[in-house]
From TrEMBL:
Pfam families reported for this sequence: tRNA-synt_1b
GO cellular component: cytosol
Alphabetized SUPFAM superfamilies for the sequence: Nucleotidylyl transferase
EC number(s) stated in the UniProt entry for this protein: 6.1.1.2
Name the record gives this protein: Tryptophan--tRNA ligase
Any Gene Ontology biological process: tryptophanyl-tRNA aminoacylation
Catalysed conversion reaction: tRNA(Trp) + L-tryptophan + ATP = L-tryptophyl-tRNA(Trp) + AMP + diphosphate + H(+)
Domain of life (superkingdom): Bacteria
GO molecular function per UniProt: ATP binding; tryptophan-tRNA ligase activity
Keywords: Aminoacyl-tRNA synthetase, ATP-binding, Ligase, Nucleotide-binding, Protein biosynthesis
């Protein structure tokens, strides 16, 4: 029997090339597992409840991003968290058995309180924000998923999910598997200016970038400041262009040699990278154009929701029964 995965992303804006490896990992996994991918709009509200987020557009955008990279709705259920009411119901019922201290000691809670709250000016001293990882546990457990592909930063959340599953099973009887985190390798791509890639720094390359936009962004990339002339020997380890070559250019060894030997100028080296990035993104653009046709995304999300519900409704019936609800 195939294992089952659940994973999710918050719809907070269109994705960039730094997100690509995560989705590509899902694309690979969807052939090996029964796959459920949720656009977690309720999670976006835990920190963004005052931001006036336009979920209609945000959901459509992220769904297009996923499908254009290769998430296949014939293999995976793709749906919106808030359309599957059982996530919220399980969150509520699990809250009954969740010790407050377990939530308070989740490391991301204190970190985010500091970053988004004290430094970011957001008021997130809310019940909903404290419950973020519990909602995430409900997302996973309502599918009885055994595997959760996530980034390293989410490990404490999956750990909490395992503890909640264990506690539920201990109190009411065995219902939930204890899911394992599956940590995808995420190469750390800098932004074009060398800082962390982030939309708020305006230093990203969007997944939907056109050939022209790619060229522009690559032109902005910071190179070795010690290299004034074309034949000066370069230091690839300090060059943003090279960091991208390392990930997206098969002939990277040659690039390194040419740079260190002063055999190629930064302009030509950038042109080479822009071509490779264009090759990378161009199949996504083609697929995206197909999914963008009117009504297509809506249909995918509807079908995904039906598939999701066929699992979550069975789980919730069992959970209610175990907890004595009639
Ligand atoms: N918290 C995750 C993130 O920020 C998103 C998420 C919500 C998630 N629910 C999930 C991931 C369930 C995996 C499983 O990346």
């Amino acid at each position: 029997m195939k294992g089952r995965i659940f994973s999710g992303m918050r719809p907070t804006g269109s994705l960039h090339i730094g997100h690509l490896s995560v989705i590509q990992n899902w694309v690979k996994l969807q052939s090996e597992y029964q796959s459920y991918f949720g656009i977690v709009d309720q999670h976006a509200l835990t920190t963004g409840y005052e931001d006036g987020l336009d979920f209609g557009t945000l959901i459509r955008e992220i769904a297009l991003d996923w499908l254009s990279v290769g998430i296949d709705p014939d293999k995976s259920a793709v749906f919106v968290q808030s359309h599957i009411k059982e996530h919220a119901e399980l969150h509520l019922l699990l809250s009954m058995i969740t010790p407050l201290s377990w939530l308070e000691r989740v490391p991301t809670y204190k970190d985010q309180m500091q970053q988004l709250g004290k430094e970011g000016g957001k008021d997130i001293s809310t019940y909903g924000f404290l419950g973020y990882p519990l909602l995430m546990a409900a997302d996973i457990l309502v599918y009885k998923a055994d595997t959760v592909p996530v980034g390293e930063d989410q490990i404490p959340h999956v750990e909490l999910c395992r503890e909640i599953a264990r506690r539920f099973n201990h109190i009411y009887g065995p219902v939930f598997p204890e899911p394992k985190a599956l940590i995808g390798k995420v190469p750390l791509l800098p932004g074009v200016d060398g800082r962390k890639m982030s939309k708020s720094y305006n230093n990203t390359i969007s997944l939907t970038a056109s050939t022209e936009e790619i060229k522009e962004k690559v032109q902005q990339m910071v190179t070795d400041p010690a290299r004034l002339r074309k034949d000066d020997p370069g230091h690839p380890e300090v060059c943003v262009v090279y960091k991208f070559h390392e990930i997206y250019t098969p002939e990277v060894a040659e690039v390194e040699e040419n740079c260190r030997g002063g055999k190629i100028g930064c302009v030509a080296c950038k042109r080479h990278l822009a071509e490779n990035l264009d090759k990378l993104l161009s199949p996504f653009r083609e697929r995206r154009a197909v999914w963008e046709e009117p009504g297509k995304i809506e249909k995918v999300l509807e079908q995904g929701a039906e598939q999701a519900r066929s699992v979550t409704q069975v789980t919730m019936k069992e959970v209610r029964q175990m907890m004595g609800l009639k």
